[in-house]
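ping. complex inputs:
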Amino acid sequence: MSKADLDKLVAQFPSAIVSTHSKCGDDTAVIRSENLLDVMRWLKGSLGFDFLVDLTAVDYLGRDPRFEVVYHLRSMQSGSRLRVKVQVACVEDGPNPTVDSVVAIWPAANWQEREVWDMFGIKFAGHPDLRRVLMYEEFIGHPLRKDYPKEKRQPLIRRDYSME
Amino acid sequence: MAHSPPSNSGQAARTGTSTGPQKMVFGMPTPDEIVSGAARELRSRPQFPPGFGEGQDADDDAPLPTEPMTINMGPSHPAMHGTVRIILTVDGETVKEADVQVGYLHRCFEKEAEYATYTQVFPYTDRLNYVSPLLNNVGFAMAAEKLLGISDKIPERAQFIRVIVGEISRITDHLTCVGASGMEVGAFTPFLWMIKCREWLWELLEELTGARLTHSYVRIGGVAADLTDNFSARLREVLAKCREAMVDVEKLIVKNRIFRDRMDGVAVISAEEAIAYGWTGPCLRSTGVPYDVRKDHPYLVYDRFDFDVPVGSTGDNYDRFAVRMEEIRQSMRILEQAMEQIPAGPFKLDDPRISMPPKSQVYNTIEGMIGHFKQIVDGVKIPPSEAYSYTEGGNGELGFYLVSDGTGRPYRCHVRAPCFILMQSVPKLIIGSGVADIIPTFGMINMIGGECDR
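pong. complex structure:
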């Protein structure tokens, strides 16, 4: 059912597609980040993907481009589902990678993009309120990055004062 | 509001009894004042400067000018189910702005899962939505099975057991949500009755899984143990008692004026907005959208049962309450059908690469022991792939997005927590309403801290 949607997407934006696959039965399209908003608007407007189910990111450390932002979409009319991925490059010690925000298309993306910023340090251009959501503002770094050590601790209340 | 004219009786008392320096009117009384009885007089009568309040009586009927005030609701608030903070800007009783801050219960579930074998993730999933842990267990197991490509090989009995324990968990989830919300608007008795029902169901699950709350009962390829011998009879007994309690609860609150006034027409959201905000589960169904993963994308053996998906009409708090009450009944229907249809057979997949060998083999054969060792140390090895698996959790679509890299540990484990996504629309629901409306609204969203903050 949704394989047809994937084919339509490839036919509509042949130059925006990096690759497609249907592993484990999930139809997936990897698209170029510069085409993200055009593709997403078209998916919502023409194919009826009016429901942003999930938005997250994956850190493929050591691969170029390093990050993938993953969108799971569902059409409430037809019930078909589609996964769209955007690859984002990240320069070592460089500025934070940036992707266009889809909050204007699906308000549901608001906190989910904040979470990706919080956990992976990926910025979303055009997001109305890009703050950390799960960690506290004083937190340094982005914990779900693969190069963030699991054992690292950053207590908000410092315990290193001397007892007088 | 009339201001009393400056009273000098307090001053007279003061000068009469105290010779010390002037002290604050509202401060602690001196011993002299207490002995003489002037203390009570002093503290109950504030003193105003001369001329204060004169000429203001004409404005008595005009509303008092208010200015916006910022107050914190939480992070620790008796009516908040989890630890959550809402920074409110209120103008009188009306909420003007609201900033919901979550994350106080963040325990790095997704990071920890990357360092645990697939089997070791199950205890973490128990702690996501901790009032319906088995639904999370089932959701994660199905994601791992989808990655392995063995979704259609799970023994039928295991699938039935998963449905049964899942629906019991859904009932406990809804009982908690409805009972606690009723309590927060003043109906304490239904809370006690519903928690009693929940306890009976949890006792049943405890007998089956060995734990009252954090069951860790589901495994990749099946479940950890078969149903106990008298499970079916005990479940029927408990369900009959729960049915009675449900009727009693509805008698108490459905026509209760206080309950209805605080629920009806409060925090209304349209179906279009709810979809745009990513709502799922009972909250989305309260707006009239009949989206239920069990019906729309049947998994396990849900397509074999006859059950209805209740929907609301206005999308207010009362609809969210009513949808949950009806879903409890529908879950009971599923349970009764499942107990009748459950086939005999194995309760886990017979594949040494996926399932643990039985203990008799582990202790008595070298193959069994090595198999057990490899399972514990290396975990279930899953070839590189990615999968998003979704089930109907207590609060909505519970999704697990897993990326595997060929090892026994997930490369990335993301959970789509339904109430995290519901929580982001709370400001929209409460802005413009009264401060008191926040409590039933928040209760009906049913934020579970463990799931929202992960």
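Residues 1-26 of chain B have pLDDT under 50 and may be disordered.
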